[in-house]
């Protein structure tokens, strides 16, 4: 990779980092509030980077989102649950990094095995989105099931069904949206980057 290519990649990463920051702080650009939860659309930005630039860069942009999520839990939480859940960096940062790694890595693997690159992008985007949902909610169950009364006004036995409901009502729509939108953006960006 020559100096010009490195500079282009750094500029693109900075651009996507700025988009992530904007999505975090301007209402409805990154989170759509639904009661005590938020339908997340920021993951699409991370997936676009992963599909167009690879898992390393997707992980970097995902990490930026994770650090912002973690900091916001202390200073400007997105929901009442964020002050309890996202102060844990394993929940706030790790799943966001893994969105980019899983989406980018699975796309690299799938594009060699599927006839259409667009099909590989759709599947990789869905896998990246589900990675975030399953890791965040799975860790909430793992770390906070004993504190569920304070978090959700639920008893311990009702926490798992509640989290499964969140997967159905938030996680699946987020994954479908990522599968539809991410390839539309990442495909042209990927071609443009190859031409440079």
Automatic annotation (TrEMBL):
Domain of life of the organism encoding this protein: Bacteria
InterPro entries in UniProt: ECF_trnsprt_substrate-spec
Transmembrane segment boundaries: 7-26, 32-51, 81-110, 122-142, 162-186
UniProt entry tagged with the keyword Membrane: yes
Pfam family, one: ECF_trnsprt
Keyword Transmembrane: yes
Gene3D superfamilies hit by this protein: 1.10.1760.20
Gene Ontology molecular function terms on file: transmembrane transporter activity
Keywords of the record: Membrane, Transmembrane, Transmembrane helix
Protein name (database record): Integral membrane protein
Organism: Ligilactobacillus agilis DSM 20509
